[in-house]
Design a protein that fits this description.
By secondary structure, this protein is mainly alpha-helical. The protein has one domain. It has 4 helices and 3 strands, in the order H-E-E-H-H-E-H. Strands 1-2-3 form a 3-stranded antiparallel β-sheet. Strand 1 and strand 2 form a beta hairpin. Helix 1 runs parallel beside helix 3 and helix 2 runs antiparallel to helix 3. The radius of gyration is 18 Å and the shape is globular. The termini are close together. About 3% of the residues have low confidence.
Length: 172
Amino acid sequence: MARGHTHGGPRLAGWLALALLVVLLDQFTKWLILGNYRLGDATFVTSFFNIVRAHNTGAAFSFLAAAGGWQRWFFTALALAAAVFITFLLRTHAGQKLFAFSLSMVLGGAVGNLIDRLVHGYVVDFLDFHWSWLTPMFAGGHFPAFNVADAAITAGVIGLILDELRRVRRGR
């Protein structure tokens, strides 16, 4: 069952506006962190959550963080290519709400982290969740710090999976 196609127009503008909103929220929160915290500073919020300032030169879970610098440009190129491809998909599928919403979230998150890589050479992370049951997987039970862009990408990927499951179910 093929996806229905709609081209551009007001729907595309709305999805791009959503992506821009994610970028603005992401960059604003990172600006607050950069202006008020030094690298490694942390503020206790609850028994399972802290605000921290961390720098990630790699990708998710600090993948390739110690690769020597080339990864900055690799992830920059990857984010640019993804942004172009996602924009094309949004233009051609703007009428599919869950699919387009999910793509907009991924696009906004990718661009938010791309800005960090270009401006700072690393991605600013600051959300630190920790639970004792995570200790076998993560030092001290601390899930790797992340940011608004990462949360948007995760929400977008979950939405894409749900959209595909719905599409497959309808095709039966």
